[in-house]
Amino acid sequence: MAPGAITLDERPTVPDHSAAVLREPRGALVVDRLPVPEPADDEVVVRVRAVAVNPVDWVIQGTGPVTYRWLRTPAVLGSDVAGEVVAVGPAVTRFRTGDRVVGLATGTDRGRDPLHEGAFQEHTALLERLTAAIPDDVSFDRAAVLPLGASTAACALFQPKHLGLPLPGAADASSDRSGVVVVWGGSTSVGMNAVQLARAAGYTVVSTASPRNADTVRSLGAEVVVDHGSPTAVDDLVAAVAGRPVVGAVAFGTTSTAACIAVLRRTGGTVLAMASTPVSLDRIAGRRRLFPGMLPVFTRIGLTTVALTLRARRAGIRAAFVWGSSLRDDDLGPELWGRVLPEGLADGSIRPMPEPLVVGHGLDAVQGAVDRQRAGVSARKVVVTL
Ligand SMILES: NC(=O)c1ccc[n+]([C@@H]2O[C@H](COP(=O)([O-])OP(=O)(O)OC[C@H]3O[C@@H](n4cnc5c(N)ncnc54)[C@H](OP(=O)(O)O)[C@@H]3O)[C@@H](O)[C@H]2O)c1
Fold it and tell me: Residue 229: is it exposed, middle or buried by C-beta count within 10 angstroms (0-12/13-18/19+)?
């Protein structure tokens, strides 16, 4: 053999690691070996220490052939990641190996790679612009609750297509922050982030929660919290606004769009950001067969959405649907993840909320965690540590 040549056994191999993999559409998540992702120029690779589960994870797993038709299997799901940086791309300036970070993985979006950038694996790639440092006193399981909740709330509040509010700490101190923001669903994961971010931006917030969670939502900065289960919830929110100008409403939860349209009509508000379908997909996501049971559900979603959109338009309300990872492609992503979240976490003005509900350790626990989130939570975020 020539000097310096390497034998077959000595050839460098791509290191592999474990991942909770969706092997085929609607299958269970199974722990498999996959190549460890390599960072692209603008990415870090993180050794994942905690992941959180969002409704979208069981929506994709259970209804992906209809709702996420672009997603190819095998795929790694999951958006919320906290861990340690183990590799950095050449264009990365804010992070080094060893840094403790939290970030939004967007691998299940159209055009992205769900094996490279999915949360539910030992290592994943995160875009630098969707990653923030974690202060030493914030644990990985607490930090992991943030990414999709904070990103979706920020899109609803700050993107020009939605409420278009000035960001917390934005330079234009001249802008008028005297209005009220209505957050329907303040005890949802997204809602808790929306209450905090709207307050941090200088606005008064009125919100909703079950009575058991009202104090928590008030502690995040809501001036008034009304019971979203009460038949008088809309009246109570209108009373809470108390004649002040409403800069817009953000709607989380299946009944939230209709309720927010009613509130805006009566308070003169004209902008609505919607994040939820008007019918939950939890039942059909859990069924053994998607067809034909999904047909009436999707028909109802379609018809109700059209009816609500027309109702909003007739009332002079500009209503649009939020996509929580769309900040990847605009200025909001770097602003939120590069400034607002790291500064807010460091000075304590933004708390990672809701509180984590750690349901297991290791990738084998991820499927149970997804099922646990689908069964329903109240002001908690389902988390798995790795
Ligand atoms: N479009 C997007 O990009 C995007 C991204 C993320 C989430 N979402 C959607 O946003 C919604 C919230 O997601 P999440 O992860 O924050 O959910 P979550 O934390 O799992 O939501 C659970 C919460 O829903 C609350 N809830 C129950 N009834 C309600 C009602 N009538 N109105 C408002 N809230 C009610 C409960 O609060 P109480 O226990 O206090 O009643 C509970 O704490 C979901 O529909 C989700 O699919 C959309």
Answer: exposed
